[in-house]
Design goal:
By secondary structure, the chain is α/β, with parallel strands linked by helices. Helices cover 37% and strands 13% of the residues. The strands form two sheets. A six-stranded parallel β-sheet has the order 3-2-1-4-5-6. Strands 7-8 form a two-stranded parallel ribbon. Helix 1 crosses helix 4 and helix 3 packs parallel to helix 4. The longest helix is centred in the middle third of the chain and has 28 residues.
Length: 253
């Protein structure tokens, strides 16, 4: 059923995003069943913001187009990525399903947090949310996008952020390509080559189920995933167990 966001929460979220110096967006697992990737992509382009997949340890599916010029990989994957962002939006994510306690908060406490989820038990459970938004992620993203279109951020700030975001995404993709070339002729076959070869031959509208657990972090970046018709949809498990892949693939199909 439709679960629309509170209009006041939409305005508050849009205000935080439009006034942010460095906003980041995480496209979480709820984008898979409900959609919203297209709206999140438009928001990212409007803000010049990066879009990440959820924390790798959560084993969430990749729910945002993986070759989009703003897509920046798994959140908190790159230790060198700038940590001076001031607004964080978990759009349908968990915040966070991690393997254990971290020495420091994954999102700094000084950062303003927007958290959208249909699961009320997740909102504010681990990270205080400045804007908790219990809603379907597709409806929330569309509402925030409409609000930002009415009151867009300053063009000069967006242009600088967009250049930096797109440069990082290009450099990340280049590093992945370089890594694949380095191990291309390895025996047994490397996960990078296997994923690249599969990406080349599987149907553009295929359902991709990855039951790889530890190797998923290396394999997923080589699949061109794009939620929604006719793009490929990605499924995985949040449990971190083995043996579910074939049944999941049959059920997903």
């Amino acid at each position: 059923e439709a679960l629309y966001p509170d209009p006041d929460a939409v305005v508050r979220a849009a205000d935080l995003l439009r006034s942010a110096q460095f906003p980041v967006i995480v496209s979480g697992r709820e984008v898979n069943p409900y959609g919203g990737a297209e709206s999140l992509g438009e928001i990212a382009e409007l803000l010049g913001a990066p879009v990440f997949s959820d924390l790798f340890a959560s084993h969430s599916p990749v729910t945002f187009p993986s070759f989009h010029p703003h897509f920046s990989g798994f959140f908190a994957e790159d230790e060198k990525y700038p940590k001076d962002y001031d607004v964080f939006w978990s759009a349908g994510g968990t915040m966070f399903t991690a393997a254990g306690a971290t020495a420091e908060p994954i999102v700094p406490r000084t950062v303003k947090v927007i958290h959208t989820s249909i699961d009320s038990s997740e909102l504010g459970r681990t990270y205080p949310a400045d804007v908790p938004m219990m809603a379907r992620v597709d409806l929330a993203a569309k509402a925030v996008l409409d609000e930002l279109r009415r009151r867009p951020p300053a063009a000069s700030a967006v242009a600088d952020r967009r250049r930096a975001t797109e440069r990082y995404a290009r450099e990340r993709r280049q590093a992945l390509d370089d890594q694949a070339r380095r191990v291309w002729n390895a025996s047994p076959i490397s996960i990078e080559r296997l994923s690249s070869e599969l990406n080349r031959v599987i149907d553009p509208g295929a359902i991709v189920v990855t039951e790889l657990i530890s190797e998923e972090q290396a394999s997923d970046p080589y699949f061109e995933l794009n939620h929604g018709a006719p793009g490929r949809r990605h499924f995985t498990t949040g449990g971190g167990c083995l043996g579910w892949g074939v049944a999941n693939a049959i059920g997903a199909k």
